[in-house]
Amino acid sequence: MRRFLASSIGVTCAAALALPLAPSGAAAAAAAPGGTAPAVTRAAVTNGAGTPGSTQSLPLQPLDPDRASGAATFGLAPRSVRSFSLVGVIWDDPAAELHGQVQVRARAADTGVWSGWQDVETHNADHAADPETAERTSGRARGATAPLWVGASDGVEIRVRAESRSGSEAEPKAGSESTPLLPPGMRLELVDPGEDPPSEDTPSEDTPSEGAESPDRNPGEGTGENTGQPSGQNPADGSAVIPADAPRTGVMSAEATAASAANAPLAPLGATEIPALNRAETEEEYHVLRGTEAAGQEANAGGQAPRAEPYIGPRPGIVTRSGWGADESLREKSFVYTDKVSAAFVHHSASGNNYTCAQAPSVIRSIYRYHTESMGWRDIGYNFLVDKCGKIYEGRAGGLANPVLGAHTLGFNSNSMGVAVLGTFSSTSPPAAAVTGVAQLTAWKLGLHGMDPSAKTYLTSGGGNLYAKGTQVRLNVISGHRDGFNTECPGGKLYDKLGTVRSAAAGYQGR
After folding, report:
1. Is the predicted pLDDT of residue 343 greater than 80, yes or no?
2. Which of 11, 171, 269, 395 has the smallest number of CB atoms closer than 10 Å to its CB?
3. Do residues 45 and 244 make contact, with C-beta atoms less than 8 angstroms apart?
4. With a threshold of 0.70, does the pTM exceed it?
């Protein structure tokens, strides 16, 4: 470990990485409900990883055609579709809320058996970039439900029922004052995550392609704005198609190289996992990242007191974006940073618990594609994700040790990080392994920024439904999403575990 750290110092200096002071920082047109816009398929190549995924986008239609002008129910009748594993509903206005009930059922691809009706979490506007940020005002952002993992399926049926102002399902006369309005431009998104990348690195994955960014490039320097892929038409059904722009070659693209290079101080280029470290190794790495290694050596040589050791938890193993098969062409090329990480917001993905730990990379690829292609975000919203077995995954690109600006807690994305536990924990308790994973992760990442997981801190609200913009808010260093925004997230059962997370994380830091 010492040998690797010594060799990393030059990379660290060349990349100008300093903690905690890092640099600050179109999918298809939607049709109005009842419109006749064609189905759309969006696809892209997974660079040097598994087979590509795609998204089918289907406009929802009135299910009560006699009241089409004021229909209270939209959806789609049962139909066969191309294979998918995750569903969600999007609409035009990212600020609009869907007041109603969304239910889907899917036909399993392997058995042909239809599932029962499953609820989709509708209130998802609180998982978003802060107001007035470039990501929020890009013109690409859309409103959306939470994504729901249904597993490999080839058939779908959906219904969206508006609720009356009293909260019950609406059955008023069309055009009456009590008729609720569903947001315009609703579309069903069916996401195919593609296949997992190879389990072992291949020599070609360590070879940057021509024009790729060098690993000694400052990870805060982007390569420009993301550009759309050319569209075409599917001759089979006339639907719009956005094809892959290049064949898979097994060689890392410029975007994949940049995402991996942002972790250069922690692991070699192309690594699929950042290995766990013990406490001594983590403390040594901390001083390398902070640039205090040389300073400490000089102080000792001059007979001064030895450097103070940090309160930081041992670094846990973390699966990189390459490890879970991120298609780096989907995100915007540049990275955006905040000043530091003063707090961690814990979330649940609300995507359901019907997945195996082996399927977690597929779930993450689906959420990533849903956030970028369907919702129009610059990257996946969360900084980290944790599966039910406690395995930790890198989220938004820009470097695991860096304060990357996420889109997870509307109004409180600055100076914070978002950690999502894969699953829905409103009435189901999170597995102990997942709770432990969150504690280990926060003990390490908050320790890099000198934060005590059991303490409180102040954050400035960027605007939301609990705190007006500019309000100084005193929050737990480890908070739940609902502490910064009026929302169900992270589910009552996971929220109840945050006290355990705080005490365990403080213990890992040696407090």
Report:
1. yes
2. 171
3. yes
4. yes
